[in-house]
Automatic annotation (TrEMBL), chains A, B:
Family listed: Belongs to the class-II aminoacyl-tRNA synthetase family. ProS type 3 subfamily.
UniProt-recorded name of the protein: Proline--tRNA ligase
UniProt EC number: 6.1.1.15
SUPFAM superfamilies noted in UniProt: C-terminal domain of ProRS, Class II aaRS ABD-related, Class II aaRS and biotin synthetases
Aminoacyl-transfer RNA synthetases class-II family profile domain boundaries: 30-295
Organism: Rurimicrobium arvi
UniProt key word Aminoacyl-tRNA synthetase: yes
Length: 493, 493
């Protein structure tokens, strides 16, 4: 049975939505721009979150929790940050509903319950957190503060897409406070590396590490570092950001500390975050026309075993017993495995279903194979099938999961390399964008005006200036002005 | 150095606040009624959450995530639920701020960005979830749905207290859907047992399991089951609730399924939750005038080792080396341990600090003890100190942690037993409430009117009708009408 997915070549956007919805990751909700993350999608997020959380703790961070609401007067305090988010803020103005006198059983907002000061639903938490840090920091002994928060945030986007851009999303936001500029910059880069390692080693997603141009910087940051990934349609996706905030928030909230010489100094800040958007990146980077392809290290389910029952009850018992053995061995190795022996669906239907959901490895156990001490092992990424001896099959599968992880990364890296090109003229730049989209390395004169103009003309933006970027003299593709390095352009999600 | 805590006898409320604030669990925030959960408090919550999450998964539940906002029209759908929460709803009415034309650098709510339909910030998620389940349930094959969500919720309480009652709080809410009434009731009770086991085995908190009277029932439930704990001031605290929702939400959202005979039936529902309020219960049940007392199984830090440095550098190195050994052995046993060798604070200051924070076991390693192959082990719960041989000290400490866990439970249980009394007359009831507050077992005529009247007169409420309550004929303490059983009264948080 087919699962009637739209193919990538037919309609890439619809393919993406089909995978999210039919693959069981998420569903639309009754709230404009908000989605429901279904158990399978949330299981994926839990696995990603657990790895990241461990990495944060290993690098000395602790979790905490700050209020959902930001009073408007605090929200305003750091002006650039406020400007950057003002246009997409959900605002709480009242704290009570009451019975509608004209409409039995209905409710209206109680006009007598207006808040004295409106509350912004946090689009990001710098303001509320720095207003708190003010009370926690007096001396250099109180520094550094290395805190992370797992939370929901709200940005009222006009055009939303499942996972990639939703009005509410889940994320983590690290907020650190330091005594020196150098230490804050080091933290910013360290967390960028944590993100990059996570993306590459767990999500099998190769990423460019770079720094944003001024136009693309986080509102209120001195520098925004980012990781950028390439999707199968040649568009870029920003997968994580780490911001060096300078002393902007310390000044806005008047957060000073006494240094060792008892001199008062403003505190240096960073913030860094990744969100459920990563799930969108994962889907678009790896999946195919049969469904999701999920890297084993973060897959909610790594292995499924499907018995091919015959009418022979004794054989059925033998299949169940053998499956039980394999499951026990795999679980002892820390592999997650499900036995799909539900009689009400045919094996072919199950195969399609597990392909759609991107389970990395499927084992089919049938009577004939059983007689020959074999099982059929199918890997989701390449769709190869192999007859494997039942002796030592759990070792085989555990190794295969690692191989799949590695090959998915290699495949994505090869794709990125094949879709990274230099453009030396405006004509070439425009032609590549339309005909062979991907990362385009091109010279730029370094001005925000030129970047803005290029964006207007082509919808392409500077994704980043890669770290350790080779220096190379050239001329800006738009203005012809001198340039000292190529930067990475792409159209982006 | 003392930590200048208010004592329980001096001012119980202030003692509680001191412990939360000075013990590093939480802080006030700039948002009315909302608090900041600090790293130490959040570490405690993470430990509690992880245990509960494992128990939920072991009982077949999966996590998912539903939107923060509930459109007003959905919120209204289940009338009793809507009535119950309408008076404490934060309401989003606008989705944009704009520059204040009269006040440079300030923002105002953009009057042109009014939502067509107001959004309620979820006080609980039955409405948004049942509106979603409607799309997920067609047939008996789609049932049961066993989903849990970890989330923040908002209830605009007028009088708030750290952890016990805050405008925003963190919780988990399970929402399940079933084909039969019996199965839903079984689920309701099963989750009550999960909560009770968690409270008793991990929080060392003995709880009564019972069912609420109609007055105290969750808005929209047919029956509310609860666990009730007794605090050191003799007031009760509801520590968790599990609701049998009948078909109320299925009817409100028109959620039907085709049964095996293809007949359409309304779905049966449950919901159940515990929140960060549990941290308040933990503090008030166990702590003392020196600070927090935290049960080892959920303590963010179980053991602290404090070296007593002398001026002898060689001895300092020996102390550090021995501490390193003990730490390694304890960690291998899964015990969390910190080496507090910060030179800038004196040992006595550190002892007071770790007592304040409720670290279950402190090991002091000093030169003289070292010469005798001993260390001083202090347990936080009883404040006993013992000289313990360094040989096998990690085994000793691991056992001691279990003993502390058990003794904390026993102590709390003894306290509850000593503060549970029968009252047979109105005079006795009132006298006990004022002079020996605790759980009062008394006869009640079963009417909401009498319960309401008792509450008005004494501020005591029916905490629960215990499960498997012994049947005993008697007369209502207020009205003298016949009663078939005693119920549990108390003043409550
Ligand atoms: Zn970038
Ligand atoms: Zn109760």
């Amino acid at each position: 049975m087919g699962n009637s997915l739209t193919s990538r070549s037919q309609d890439y956007s619809q393919w993406y939505n089909d995978l999210i919805l039919k693959g069981g990751l998420a569903d639309y909700s009754a709230v404009r721009g908000c989605m429901v993350i279904k158990p399978y999608g949330f299981g994926l997020w839990e696995n990603m979150r657990d790895v990241l959380d461990r990495k944060f703790k290993e690098t000395g961070h602790q979790n905490a929790y700050f209020p959902l609401f930001v009073p408007k007067s605090l929200f305003e305090a750091e002006e650039k940050n406020a400007e950057g988010f003002a246009k997409e803020c959900a605002v709480v103005t009242h704290y009570r509903l009451k019975a509608d006198p004209d409409n039995k059983g209905k409710l209206i907002v109680d006009p007598n319950a207006r808040l004295e000061e409106e509350l912004v639903v946090r689009p990001t938490s710098e303001a509320i957190i720095w207003n708190t840090y003010k009370n926690w920091i007096q001396s250099y002994r109180d520094l550094p503060i290395l805190i992370n928060q797992w939370a929901n945030v709200v940005r009222w986007e006009m055009r939303t897409r499942l996972f990639l851009r939703t009005a509410e999303f889940l994320w983590q936001e690290g907020h650190t406070a330091h005594a020196t500029k150098a230490e804050a910059i080091e933290e910013t880069k360290k967390m960028l590396d944590v993100y990059a390692d996570f993306a590459e080693q767990y999500m099998a997603l190769p990423v460019l590490r770079g720094v944003k141009s001024a136009n693309e910087r986080f509102a209120g940051a001195e520098d925004t570092y980012c990781i950028e990934a390439l999707m199968q349609d040649g568009k870029a996706l920003q997968a994580g950001t780490s911001h060096f905030l300078g002393q902007n928030f310390a000044k806005a909230f008047d957060v000073k500390f006494a240094d060792k010489e008892n001199k008062l100094e403003y505190v240096w800040a960073t913030s860094w975050g990744v969100s459920t958007r990563l799930i969108g990146a994962l889907v678009m980077a790896h999946s195919d026309d049969e469904g999701l392809v999920i890297p084993p290290r973060i897959a909610p389910l790594q292995v499924v075993i499907v018995p091919i029952y015959s009418k022979d009850e004794a054989m059925k018992a033998r299949l169940d017993a053998k499956a039980g053995e394999i499951i026990k061995e795999l679980r002892a190795k820390g592999v997650s495995v499900k036995y799909d022996n539900d009689d009400s669906n045919r094996p072919g239907w199950k195969f399609a279903e597990h392909e759609l959901r991107g389970v990395p490895v499927r084992i089919a156990l049938g009577p004939r194979d059983m007689e020959n001490n074999l099982a059929e092992v199918a890997r989701r990424d390449t769709k190869e099938k192999l007859s494997v001896s039942l002796d030592g099959i759990s070792n085989y599968v555990a190794d295969l999961l690692e191989e799949i992880q590695q090959q998915m990364f290699n495949k994505a890296l090869k794709f990125r390399e094949e879709n990274s090109r230099n453009a030396d003229t405006w004509e070439e730049f425009v032609r590549l964008l339309d005909e062979q989209p991907g990362f385009i390395y091109a010279h730029w004169d370094g001005t925000p005006e030129t970047e803005e103009k290029i964006k207007e003309l082509t919808k392409a933006t500077i994704r980043c200036i890669p770290l350790d970027n080779p220096q190379e003299e050239g001329k800006c593709i738009l203005t012809g002005s001198p340039s000292a390095q190529r930067v990475v352009f792409a159209r982006a999600y």
